[in-house]
Structure formats: structure tokens, C-alpha cells
Amino acid sequence: MLLDFSKLDATSIYKLISNTVTPRPIAWISTEHNGITNLAPFSYFIPLSSEPPMLIVSIGKKEDGSPKDTLANVLNGSKATINFVSKELKDVMSQSAASLPYEQSEFETFEIKSEIPLNNYPKMVKGTKAAFFCRFVKTISIEGSETTPCLLLVEHAYYADEIIDEALHVKLDNVGRVGSKFLVDGSLVL
């Protein structure tokens, strides 16, 4: 089957891309504003380069058209902590996708345990096996897009001792996004 994307609606294109570029690890991003730490998952997330260590995450808008909290926070100078999701954290990560008021923290609302390994970055989800501590670089404009791609520079990384060896080989089993489902241990789950 050959499909012409210029003749498909945005929902169909999202469905096709999100079910083809798989599995994509979920960027579970914590950011801060006025002492409040927000936490939200994003499925349009991928590494961009190693030198410099750059990632890109695309962030959509709220239903009212305003920027999502994560985007608003990084545009206002917040650094970002990207937590990787293991199967043990899948359910609480799904809860944190709920739309909450800007002044309400997902950490507090859903009683998500946290820790602060680096003082100049937002909290990290306790129990995550890996996290990147990033600085926002810039957004990229895409004509006609409802999402805002953000370039993030990875400045530090955390790895649980049991998933990394002395040669820096990482054995990480992330929950990945596959369309509207998650890939856990090679199996699709809701």
C-alpha cells in the first residue's frame, strides 16, 4: 500500500507514524515554575546527536491552544529532567498524563516519589533506572504543525548501578510507545 500523506488527515498521519517508528522511549519530563514541579510524558522523543549530546521532544498544545506546562516552563528558563520509564513505573506514568491545572504538581497529586540528585535540575522520579538532566536550547518551527519541537542539551545523566557496567554498556528495558499502546518486555499492553 502506498499512501499520500498530503491526502490524509492529521489523526491518520499521527496513527501511521506513531505505529511505525517504534518502539519510542517515553520522555517523562519534569520541569519547574514558582516552586512547583510538573511531570508529563511525551512520545515524540528521540536522540538527535552525540556531539553535542542533543535530544528533541515535540510538545503539543492544551485543548484551549495554550502551551502545555512543560513547554511553558522550558521557555521560561526551567531545565528539564527526562526520566525513562520502566515497567514498574508504567501505571503511574500513565496517571501523570492527566491534564492538571498549571499550579498543580503531578508529583504531589499522584503521590509520585522523587529525589533530587542534582540541585540545579528538577526532581527525578524515584525508581527510574535512567535520567537525563537537560538544558533547553531552542524550539524549531514547523509550518502547519500543532507541536513545538524542542532541542535539549544533555548536561548530566543518571544510571542505576545495576544497568550500567564499567565500559558504559547500558542494559535498559524502557517502556516504549507504540501508537496508543505501550511496549513492555516485547509485549503490547494498554
TrEMBL record:
Pfam families: Flavin_Reduct (PF01613). Residues 21-177 form the Flavin reductase like domain. Keywords: Flavoprotein, FMN. It comes from the Bacteria. Its cofactor is FMN. One of its GO terms (molecular function) is FMN binding. Belongs to the flavoredoxin family. This is Flavin reductase like domain-containing protein. It comes from Sulfurospirillum diekertiae.
